[in-house]
Amino acid sequence: MTTSPAIANPRDTYKRQKSTRSNFELYGWVFMRASGVILLVLIFGHLFVNLMVGEGVNAIDFAFVGGKWTSPFWQTWDLVMLWLAMIHGTNGVRTIINDYAERDLTRLWLKIALYTAFVVVTVLGTLVIFTFSPCPVDAPAELLPSVCTA
After folding, report:
1. Which segments of the chain does DSSP mark as H helices, in order?
2. Long-range interactions of 126-132: CB distance < 8 A, separation 24+
3. What is the rounded CA–CA span in Å between residue 33 and residue 36?
4. In a domain, 83, yes or no
5. Helix (H, G, I), strand (E, B) or coil at 3
6. In this structure, are residues 85 and 39 in contact, taking their beta carbons and an 8 Å threshold?
7. For the ranges 4-8, 25-29, 71-75, which has the lowest average pLDDT?
8. Are 76 and 24 in contact (CB under 8 A)?
9. Of the N and C termini of the chain, which has fewer Cβ atoms inside 10 Å?
10. 57: domain CATH number?
């Protein structure tokens, strides 16, 4: 005869088991909510300045972007938007991979591809923001934006 484990008394107070798991998923969930709100402000601010202020969409060209990126404020704005969007999106896709990739090896390779894409896009985007020069040295003066001194 086998003995079944004793059933706990339902009137006993609940005693939480010591967990060895981390709170990484909780922090990821909180980050997604907070970064989503911040991204809404950043993206709609970006769209408003680019599409509504001044001449609107007709003014967007090399000179417009060059003029914006001569300001540390707009460099920082676009950098924060890039980094938050990339981390937010990568965390979301990581969650989808964890939910839908059934085999461990498939999950591993998908995450390697995801993290590689994250690093490449984030590094290249950051380099573009900080190394962009709206005033190339040998460019004809009539092609330079107004922020450049010929």
Report:
1. 24-51, 62-68, 72-100, 104-131
2. 126/79, 126/82, 126/83, 129/69, 129/75, 129/78, 129/79, 129/82, 130/75, 130/79, 132/65, 132/66, 132/69
3. 5
4. yes
5. coil
6. yes
7. 4-8
8. no
9. N
10. 1.20.1300.10
Residue 13 lies in a domain: no
Q: Residue 40: its pLDDT value, please?
A: 97
Q: For the whole model, what pTM was predicted? A: 0.76
In a domain, residue 17? The reply is: no
Q: What is the pLDDT of residues 27-65, one digit of tens each?
A: 989 999 999 999 999 999 999 988 888 787 888 877 788
pLDDT of residue 20: 62
In a domain, 14, yes or no: no
Give dist(CA 88, CA 82) in Å, integer. 10
Q: Give the integer Cα–Cα distance in Å for 82 and 122.
A: 7
Exposed (0-12), middle (13-18) or buried (19+): which is 68, by Cβ within 10 Å?
A: buried
Task: Please tell me the total count of domains within the chain.
Answer: 1
Residue with the bigger pLDDT between 144 and 94: it is: 94
- Which pair of structure tokens corresponds to residue 140? 């004809």
Range of the domain at 50: 25-135
Instruction: Give the mean pLDDT of 74-91.
Output: 96
Work out whether the CA dihedral 136, 142, 144, 148 comes out positive or negative: positive
